[in-house]
């Protein structure tokens, strides 16, 4: 049994012990037992004993011999070693069980700690996000996100480097562009909406909010804002979210809301009502006399969107089979009142701009060429307004186009929380370059802090 101990007098591990016991059982014991049987056999077959003693005597002698052999000190030693080994195994089993128990308790404790840590982390993340949002608010910055269409990555000079940054190489120079969100080609419609719904919520809290999709033709602006049957875009999702949130969470704290919507388009620098058989609308001062439809449920919304879809100016171009030839502005007017008589009166604008395009690529001629020129002119005025606002010029040329007259409140003349979603198709290097440069201007433009609109 000495061999089972290590130099510190402790027993080696259980496996070693078991293998030694097995060796005793397999080799030593059988060899002694073998000798006992051999001798017994010889004794039985000895003629002299067989003739001189009776069978009872023989078996007695055998029994005695076996008793003697049981008393054999070598076998006794083995037996006592086996007994001790058994005790040691039992001790080890108890030790292992105690360790297992300890381990189970530790695992439980670590799991509890990890859960608490995760909750704390997500609380911290939310807090950081809120603080970041507050900083952007206080600075009165325009928020900018980017949605990237699927593109050929081999040899591309465009790279998505994180959830907030993209890298773009042009003329041997590599620039990093920062965004509120980067929506990758794999980001789906619900995920896009999930990231911007906090902004939509601000409208329910009384702030004017604008979300504007821009970018070159065929980059996915209409897909993001309107979506298609299977993949609804921001407009239907935003209304659904507002209806649900106002009826449940906000109603429980005593707020009552009413919603009214309008949908207009700017086509060839003229304004048309998409909810009133495309009637031309005159803009007098700030007022827009478009049809306003009350919204009580999603059935109203779907009806309204179908009306607008049927009226919107769309054409097939070389770049996009269903290219929007107009800027579309969906606006939802929100009125809220709570039990103590506090009110809010604000609006949410969801804008799907027509895409910038080059005459050569789009193959535009005749009427389409005129449309394209007007689209590019209004987008250029929009950029000029942003630049003037960024440079804090005394004059911002809002009145130079119908589009900027309609969006002036979102671009700094009023109080608004504004987000642009830039759309790019990175394989179109030239347009990507232009779009990214414009996003830099947008990010550094201050439009003032959005305040709660009480309507009083
Ligand atoms: N992220 C996307 N995932 C899947 N399909 C998309 C995505 N973005 C755009 N598409 C598809 O690409 C096509 C062009 O998109 P869309 O019409 O939205 O472009 P656009 O930017 O509005 O163009 P235009 O300025 O000409 O109106 C559509 O068929 C649309 O369904
Ligand atoms: Mg479009």
Which helices and strands occur, and which strands form pairs?
Elements: H1 14-45, H2 47-52, H3 55-70, H4 73-139, E1 143-148, E2 158-160, E3 165-170, E4 173-178, E5 181-183, H5 189-204, E6 209-214, H6 221-225, H7 234-247, H8 249-252, E7 255-267, E8 270-273, E9 279-281, E10 283-284, E11 287-288, E12 293-295, H9 298-311, E13 314-315, E14 323-324, E15 327-338, E16 343-352, H10 359-362, H11 366-390, H12 402-407, E17 417-424, H13 429-443
Parallel strand pairs: 1-5, 1-17, 6-16, 6-17
Antiparallel strand pairs: 2-3, 3-4, 7-8, 7-12, 7-15, 8-9, 10-11, 13-14, 15-16
Bound molecules: adenosine-5'-triphosphate and magnesium ion (MG).
Magnesium ion binds at residues 221-222, 324, 352.
Structure description:
49% of the residues lie in helices and 20% in strands. It folds into two domains: 2-106; 142-443, 3-Layer(aba) Sandwich (Kinesin). By secondary structure, the chain is an alpha+beta fold. Adenosine-5'-triphosphate is lined by residues 149, 215, 217-223, 228, 320, 322-324, 354-355, 423. Pfam families: Kinesin.
